[in-house]
Specification:
18 helices, Rossmann fold, 4-stranded parallel sheet, Ubiquitin-like (UB roll), 585 residues, globular, alpha/beta, 33% helix, 4 domains
């Protein structure tokens, strides 16, 4: 511990803290811009400068460590003038079409200007270093270089957290810009479209490609039957866009808002998450049976729910694609069922049906455009886009009465809810797999598999089947090891183990985004660890509050097999609910 003074306030703090961290701990706010707590700290923007007694120059508080006896001033005239000049210089190189920018009203650059009391016309004029270059080459993410202020947050997230590395600082001096090398567009390189760059970008330089207008046109088309579905993580985050605390469950209000927007059918992607467990669990146990019989089988099997992860393995580990489950992700499954089962049931030509998915993820936009699944889902909107639609429609979200999802795709188990957080797919699968293999109730405390819960980026667990049903002879007494990873840098670790033949696991869950879908690229900004925990806890509350908590007990799932699919991993299932992958390299 060290003792110091900040703005004449005597404080004690850990010697490893920076000045900005120590100030925050003691209720003192230091304006910052490029700094992002726990993610990015390079001191490049100089907005967070402070005066330190005895130092010859102003110090970047996000970089300078506290010291014994240090005396810090955060708001002297010198400091405030320096911040203003820095801001005005950044603004002079910025595209100032703020009124038509999608980030208008939710832009950190705007907020900083207000905080610094920038009220006069900018005194700096001249040539702009970044022309109005737009990258709209892909269906998921847009880039506008004229809005980039070179904070490099996206570079840190892409390189250090995700380990993808397609965004970097290019050129030098006045010609510097952030983007792929050789001025490639995102569609031409190994971008996974995870969207983590869009969640940390403080301006409109990186954002999801919006399809809001397309959805309004569908809703207003009298010849279209428009189905909407919502992912489990959306209900734990949507409320933040309307002033609710992070982790507030707004499931009922969300369903009511979607109905008021004019959608014809309000379905829950959770239904298809339960379906995924039946399909994926059956696929996994089939591989295990064949392995025990001495056949050459691709184990471990890896989940296929996360499209960002799928794009990553196709790009970086194309020779390991056989380890993936062949299951489509839940929302693509529901889209296929809506157009090939529900449409027929209600007497609608599937050509006249449109399916809209509300997802926490930008990579889902890319997934819906893949040739091998084209047509299952017509449009994907992010959580942020749905919030904009609700506001645009003049709906007072807080005043809505809770409503329910529609049948036949509205009922789900608690196991489906936890798909929204890292470890959730694994836990949901184990609840079912254990009972299928043993014929007994899962022995987990409150049905939770604690070893795979929480925000840790790498987790592992194991099960020992002491007794099994006759068809699973050979598993008794054996330890089945499983692993969970979130964030693509951690996926790489597990994939290298598989590539080298050293993986000890039989089943692996991988999510592209840190913490899973609760912090997907389309969720409300900013997603800190504190926010992740609150969303994760909400997901588990939703699970624990349900009567049905195991996917195989969902009566609506049982009915869809009886009426239409016949059996998990059967012919009809493989035709509609399974897919194949692309050797991209």
């Amino acid at each position: 511990m060290v003792s110091l003074k900040i703005n004449n306030k005597a404080i004690e703090c850990d010697e490893h803290l920076t000045i900005i961290e120590a100030a925050k701990e003691n209720g003192i706010n230091i304006p910052s811009f490029c700094y992002l707590e726990g993610v990015h700290s390079v001191g490049s923007c100089r907005v967070c400068v402070v005066e330190v007694e005895g130092a010859p120059t102003l110090q970047a508080s996000c970089m300078a460590k506290v010291k014994e006896g240090m005396v810090v001033k955060t708001n002297t005239e010198k400091v405030r003038k320096a911040r203003k000049v820095v801001y005005e210089l950044m603004m002079s190189d910025h595209n100032q079409n703020c009124l038509i920018c999608t980030r208008n009203g939710s832009c950190e650059f705007q907020e900083l200007g207000e905080l610094l009391h920038i009220t006069e016309e900018n005194p700096y004029e001249g040539e702009k270093s970044k022309p109005a270059v737009y990258d709209m080459s892909n269906p998921a993410i847009e880039r506008d270089l004229s809005k980039c202020i070179l904070c490099r947050r996206c570079v840190t997230v892409c390189n250090e957290i995700q380990g993808v590395g397609i965004l970097n600082s290019q050129n030098r001096g006045f010609n510097s810009f952030v983007g792929p090398s050789e001025e490639f567009e995102l569609m031409d390189i190994n971008c996974t479209f995870c969207g983590q760059c869009t969640t940390v970008c403080p301006t409109g330089a990186l954002k999801e490609k919006s399809y809001i207008q397309d959805v309004w046109e569908m809703i207003n088309d009298p010849n279209k039957r428009v189905v909407v579905q919502t992912a489990p993580a959306v209900r734990a985050a949507l409320g933040e866009e309307f002033g609710y605390e992070a982790g507030t469950l707004v499931t009922g209000k969300m369903a009511a808002a979607l109905r008021m927007l004019g959608f014809d059918d309000i379905f829950d992607t959770n239904f298809a998450a339960d379906l995924t467990i039946l399909e994926e669990g059956t696929e996994f146990l089939g591989r295990v049976k064949n392995f025990l019989a001495g056949e050459d089988v691709s184990l471990p099997m890896i989940t296929s729910c996360s499209p960002g992860w799928i794009k990553y393995i196709e790009d970086h580990f194309p020779d390991q694609l056989d380890h993936l489950s062949t299951c489509k992700s839940p929302h693509m499954m529901l889209g296929a069922l809506a157009k090939n089962y529900y449409a027929e049931t209600i007497g609608v030509d599937k050509k006249d049906m449109a399916v809209v998915s509300i997802m926490p993820c930008t990579a889902k936009k890319f997934e819906a455009s893949r040739d091998e699944m084209l047509g299952d889902v017509d449009v994907v909107l992010t959580t942020r886009e749905l919030a904009k639609m609700i506001k645009d429609a003049g709906i007072e979200f807080s005043m809505l009465q809770d409503e329910s999802f529609d049948t036949p795709f509205g009922l789900s188990s608690g196991a489906a809810d936890i798909f929204g957080t890292t470890g959730g797919v694994m836990e949901a699968a184990l609840r079912t797999v254990f009972e299928v293999v043993t014929g007994r109730d899962a022995p987990f405390d409150n049905l939770h598999v604690e070893s795979v819960m929480g925000l840790a980026s790498m987790k592992e667990g194991s099960l020992i089947f002491e007794d099994v049903l006759p068809e699973y002879q050979g598993l008794e007494g054996k330890e089945v090891k499983v692993a969970v990873a979130s964030g693509l840098a951690n996926a790489k670790i597990l994939m290298n183990q598989i590539k080298e033949g050293k993986s000890p696991y039989l089943f692996i869950e991988i999510m592209a985004c840190p913490g899973g879908c609760i912090s997907g690229g389309g969720q409300p900004r900013m997603t800190t660890d504190e926010v992740r925990r609150k969303r994760m806890n909400a997901i588990y509350r939703e699970d624990e509050g349900k009567v049905l908590r195991k996917s195989h007990q969902n009566t609506a799932i049982q009915a869809i097999y009886e009426k239409f699919l016949m059996e998990p991993n059967g012919h009809k299932s493989h035709e509609l609910l399974h897919t194949h992958y692309i050797h991209r390299g």
